[in-house]
């Protein structure tokens, strides 16, 4: 006992007396810290510093304040935005024939281009003072999503000018003169923008672009002016083939020090009219058969005046930071909107098809194998919608949460890939045969595009979510890194000293917290609500604490190596991501008034999130370089083993049942899905068939009863069955007419397109 007291006193003296602590602990730890965490590169630092830490910070630090989550206002459309949805968006959707656009015209028809330009679809983010619509992020997301349920090509065309590009960059950084010069034309659709960063040698590693600009004097409009001589070669640029204004990223050099003392200024962004001498808009690409405009641009020794730099000469070399800051907003809106659209479309159409399509004498949606896939489609769509709304909502709070938007981009596009595969499996041949009737094919073809753009997914999962998340969301690491980088060593040591004490307290709190919650299985954690979902809050708090502990240990043990150990760190990123997805789902459920019908969707979603968290931790412990530390961590966090399981089959069946019948939950879950009018429209036809088959059930029951009695034969074609039932008065003439109509719709909706010989050779796929 006395030894313990003595140890405690020594500890208090060592930690409590500043000089002793600094010499005995802080100095050596600081030395080790500097060694294991190499200084950040400029691009890394700018990426880390750009944007905001939001709810991801709470989740990462082990103590999510759920009341704070609930207090975040629910993102909603204004009356003006809703009117735009009901009028302009609706009109546009009725103008779109995606089969013709993609397979025949390979472009939007001229009248669609004109409608988009004339009605402010390119001006959603531009302020009203410049003639723009000045819509919120949630409106931008909702509009793009709804269009994407009709035509991915149209959605991407609308999305790009409202995402990272000239408009966004001008609004944030443009000089007044540049704003006045460009924004009214962009808002009116007279100018079409594109933004060129990617080239053959630099894709993911965008900081390594070889395109150059050299500051020099040259001739512009008959006068000698200070400017930049540019050389670039870019590819994959969306809207480039039709652009009138090119946003260009290049590395700027000032060898003659015409602008200042620095000779290497770094990445810079400029706006260049495509009509400017020397600007070449090259050939068009053909991305996965999609018809949106995408192509190349290049230029050799093109001279531009210096004030074409976005933000003017003051912003020379600040392009990387500008891009990183703006990318995060776009990443949280555009790709999530497209991903959610696939969910809305797939849920509505696959549910309908599973009911209409019969095999072995019953609707295929009654088979458990199909229910498993259908349940996943529905649950993923619920999660997607929840994430879409919450993430766009953050951007509407004027935040730029870079980790959260990376999570949304990666997970939502991956979920969309999974659910489209499920939709394809269920539709089988009906989804494979491309033609006007196929409402899924183009979305399926387009998925790899969503996976690739705005941060290719492997990189996003492995580097951005945890790599940036760990440093940004951690309460002390970024400041510790700054202390280590302080050129004044003594000042750095002092900064580090005060952070270290707090960091030790944080780590101890997490260690004991994780153990306590592990031993009690989180039962004593608080929940902001009572009822069915309370248990989920408790488990998520517990896993948040486990993440805080594991992340700290990993950074301590692996230091800078953690960045290279992508497989390991990505698993911690998965934990953070699933905590975020689950938070969005719980908030969505609350914001929508805790609808009982939502419960199966909530159960499936959160139980899957917890299961994925368990899986990620399991892989993390298994592969952690030190087996002893891994065992220690595992014992602290999961003393009784990882017990999370995938949702029970009954939950999956509850979801698939809900998608097999018309109703409020189906309508709510697919509210963005555009249903065309009439039997000629592929979605309209499937919806009509679905309703008709449902409405015919009471009449069919009479026929089934007659079949049981043996008065009507079984296993005969439907037309004959209806005729026979009418003949022997099992059904009346009106009922027979209804069944005939139902049968026509049913047959037409399960039919696929076929083409006369020679037709396909005219426009090869
Ligand atoms: C249809 C389409 C439209 C586009 N529109 C534009 C546009 O308008 N403007 C523009 O500038 N660009 C645009 N892009 C470019 C897009 O942003 C790039 O394709 C993307 O950055 C990936 O670059 P890459 O294709 O060269 O792949 P690469 O960079 O060659 O990557 C290949 C693979 O390696 C992975 N990878 C790379 N580095 C790492 C790492 N450190 N850790 C883990 N994995 C890694 C990637 O995730 C990817 O899976 C577009 C691309 C497409 C396909």
Automatic annotation (TrEMBL):
Q: Which UniProt keywords apply?
A: FAD, Flavoprotein, Oxidoreductase
**Residue ranges of domain Acyl-CoA dehydrogenase/oxidase N-terminal in the record:** 81-190
Looking at the record, the residues that make up the Acyl-CoA dehydrogenase/oxidase C-terminal domain are 317-462
The protein's name is Acyl-coenzyme A dehydrogenase
Pathway this chain belongs to? Lipid metabolism; fatty acid beta-oxidation
Residue limits of the Acyl-CoA oxidase/dehydrogenase middle domain? 194-292
Pfam families from the UniProt entry: ACDH_C (PF09317), Acyl-CoA_dh_1 (PF00441), Acyl-CoA_dh_M (PF02770), Acyl-CoA_dh_N (PF02771)
Homology family: Belongs to the acyl-CoA dehydrogenase family.
- Which major enzyme category is it? oxidoreductase
| Known cofactor(s) | FAD
What is the catalytic activity of this protein? Answer: a medium-chain 2,3-saturated fatty acyl-CoA + oxidized [electron-transfer flavoprotein] + H(+) = a medium-chain (2E)-enoyl-CoA + reduced [electron-transfer flavoprotein]; a long-chain 2,3-saturated fatty acyl-CoA + oxidized [electron-transfer flavoprotein] + H(+) = a long-chain (2E)-enoyl-CoA + reduced [electron-transfer flavoprotein]
Looking at the record, the residues that make up the Acyl-CoA dehydrogenase C-terminal bacterial-type domain are 471-755
- InterPro entries, alphabetized: Acyl-CoA_dehydrogenase, Acyl-CoA_Oxase/DH_mid-dom, Acyl-CoA_Oxase/DH_mid-dom_sf, AcylCo_DH-like_C, AcylCo_DH/oxidase_C, AcylCoA_DH/ox_N, AcylCoA_DH/ox_N_sf, AcylCoA_DH/oxidase_NM_dom_sf
Which Enzyme Commission numbers does its entry carry?
1.3.8.7, 1.3.8.8
């Amino acid at each position: 006992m006395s030894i313990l007291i003595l140890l405690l006193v020594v500890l208090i003296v060592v930690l409590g007396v500043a000089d002793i602590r600094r010499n005995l602990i802080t100095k050596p730890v600081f030395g080790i810290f500097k060694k294991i965490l190499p200084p950040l590169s400029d691009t890394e630092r700018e990426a880390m510093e750009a944007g905001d830490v939001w709810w991801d910070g709470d989740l990462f630090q082990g103590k999510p304040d759920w009341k704070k989550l609930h207090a975040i206002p629910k993102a909603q459309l204004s009356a003006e935005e809703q009117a735009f949805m009901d009028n302009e968006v609706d009109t546009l959707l009725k103008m779109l024939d995606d089969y013709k656009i993609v397979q025949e015209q390979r472009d939007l028809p001229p009248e669609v281009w004109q409608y988009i330009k004339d009605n402010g679809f390119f001006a959603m983010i531009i302020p009203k003072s410049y003639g723009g619509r000045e819509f919120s992020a949630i409106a931008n997301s909702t509009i793009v999503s709804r269009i994407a349920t009709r035509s991915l090509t149209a959605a991407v065309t609308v999305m790009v000018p409202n995402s990272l590009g000239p408009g966004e960059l001008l609004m944030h950084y443009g000089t007044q003169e540049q704003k006045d010069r460009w924004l009214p034309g962009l808002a009116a659709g007279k100018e079409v923008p594109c933004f060129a960063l990617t080239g053959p040698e630099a894709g993911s590693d965008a900081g390594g672009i070889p395109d150059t600009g050299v500051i020099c004097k040259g001739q512009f409009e008959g006068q000698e002016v200070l400017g930049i001589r540019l050389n670039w070669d870019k590819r994959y640029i969306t809207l480039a083939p039709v652009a009138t204004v090119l946003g260009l990223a290049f590395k700027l050099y000032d060898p003659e020090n015409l602008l200042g003392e620095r000779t290497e200024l770094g990445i810079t962004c400029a706006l260049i009219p495509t009509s400017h001498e020397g600007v070449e808009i090259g050939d068009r690409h053909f991305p996965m058969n999609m018809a949106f405009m995408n192509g190349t641009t290049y230029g050799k020794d093109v001279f531009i005046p210096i004030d074409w730099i976005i933000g003017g000469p003051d912003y020379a070399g600040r392009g990387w930071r500008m891009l990183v800051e703006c990318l995060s907003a776009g990443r949280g809106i555009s790709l999530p909107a497209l991903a959610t659209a696939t969910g809305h479309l797939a849920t509505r159409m696959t549910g309908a098809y599973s009911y209409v399509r019969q095999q072995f004498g019953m609707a295929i949606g009654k088979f458990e194998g199909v229910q498993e896939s259908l349940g996943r489609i529905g649950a993923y769509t619920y999660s997607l919608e929840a994430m879409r709304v919450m993430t766009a909502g953050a951007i509407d709070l004027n935040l730029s949460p870079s980790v959260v938007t990376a999570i949304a981009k990666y997970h939502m596009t991956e979920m969309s890939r999974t659910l489209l595969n499920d939709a394809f499996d269920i539709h089988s041949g009906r989804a494979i045969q491309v033609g006007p009737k196929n409402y899924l094919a183009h979305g399926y073809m387009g998925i790899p595009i969503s996976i690739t753009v705005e941060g290719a997914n492997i990189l996003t999962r492995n580097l951005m979510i945890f790599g940036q998340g760990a440093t940004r969301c951690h309460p002390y690491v970024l400041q510790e890194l700054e202390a280590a980088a302080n050129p004044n060593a003594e000042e750095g040591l002092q900064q580090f000293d005060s952070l270290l004490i707090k960091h030790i307290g944080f780590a101890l709190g997490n260690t004991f917290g994780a153990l306590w919650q592990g031993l009690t299985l989180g039962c004593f954690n608080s929940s902001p609500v009572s009822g069915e979902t309370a248990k989920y809050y408790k488990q998520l708090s517990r896993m948040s604490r486990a993440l805080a502990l594991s992340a700290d240990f990993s950074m301590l043990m692996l230091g800078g190596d953690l960045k290279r150990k992508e497989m390991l760190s990505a698993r911690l990123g998965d934990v953070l991501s699933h905590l975020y997805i689950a938070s969005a789902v719980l908030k969505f459920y609350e914001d929508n008034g805790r609808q009982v019908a939502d419960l199966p969707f909530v159960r499936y979603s959160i139980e899957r999130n917890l299961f994925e968290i368990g899986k990620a931790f399991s892989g993390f412990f298994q592969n952690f370089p030190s087996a002893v530390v891994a065992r220690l961590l595992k014992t602290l966090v999961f003393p009784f083993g990882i017990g999370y399981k995938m949702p029970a089959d009954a939950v999956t069946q509850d979801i698939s049942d809900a998608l097999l019948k018309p109703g409020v939950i189906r309508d709510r879950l697919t509210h963005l899905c555009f249903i065309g009018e009439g039997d000629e429209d592929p979605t309209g036809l499937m919806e009509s068939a679905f309703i008709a088959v449902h409405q015919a059930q009471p009449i069919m029951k009479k026929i089934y009863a007659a079949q049981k009695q043996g008065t009507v034969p079984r296993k005969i074609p439907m037309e004959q069955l209806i005729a026979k039932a009418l003949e022997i008065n099992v059904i009346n003439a009106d009922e027979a007419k209804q069944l005939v109509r139902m049968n026509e719709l049913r047959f037409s909706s399960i039919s696929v397109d076929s083409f006369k010989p020679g037709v396909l050779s005219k426009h090869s796929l």
